[in-house]
Write a structure and sequence with these properties.
Elements lengths: L3 E8 L1 H5 L3 H10 L3 E8 L3 H7 L9 H8 L4 E9 L1 H9 L12 H5 L8 E3 L3 H11 L2
Antiparallel strand pairs: 1-3, 1-4, 2-3
Helix pairs in contact: 3-4
The structure holds adenosine-3',5'-cyclic-monophosphate.
């Protein structure tokens, strides 16, 4: 049975800065994730804090919010069969050191902060995250 989902993807400042958007989008396309909407923007630290509030108790929260607001990002709604899980598989582990060969973070990630992409971790969070960027 088909299970078409939507998920939110963010190309983070480290990847935007290195002009990796087209390469990353080609990986989505190769994996049958289509880009429904896309925009480039820079968010404030307050907006980053709101977006990542699920992590507010974590020791890395402040650093994370500083980082996401440090430069331009590209946000996208991806759609496809099992899009949430598929996107997370394609991204690879959070820490690029642990990301499997061929995943986006393995290919392009620099560190656990500069890990090139974000992807929603559940269908429920995807809805919240999509609403955050695409009202
Ligand atoms: P992301 O998928 O965007 O979700 C939260 C981000 O926090 C994560 O990617 C990492 O870039 C960042 N982060 C920084 N330090 C850690 C850590 N110790 N564990 C998990 N995520 C971390």
């Amino acid at each position: 049975m088909s299970n078409v989902e939507q998920t939110l993807s963010i190309i983070k400042p480290d990847a935007c800065e290195r002009n990796l958007s087209d390469k990353i989008k080609a990986i989505f396309s190769k994996n049958n994730l289509s880009i429904l909407k896309s925009k480039k923007l820079q968010i404030s630290k307050d907006e980053a804090a709101e977006f990542y509030k699920i992590h507010q108790s974590k020791p890395f929260y402040d650093q994370l919010c500083n980082y996401l607001s440090s430069g331009p990002i590209e946000v996208m709604i991806l759609e496809g069969e099992n899009a949430v899980t598929k996107n997370r598989d394609i991204m690879g582990a959070t820490d690029p050191k642990n990301a499997k060969d061929g995943t986006i973070r393995n290919l392009f990630g620099i560190s656990i902060d500069k890990n090139s992409v974000h992807g929603s971790d559940s269908v429920e969070n995807a809805k919240i995250e999509i609403k955050f960027f695409f009202k």
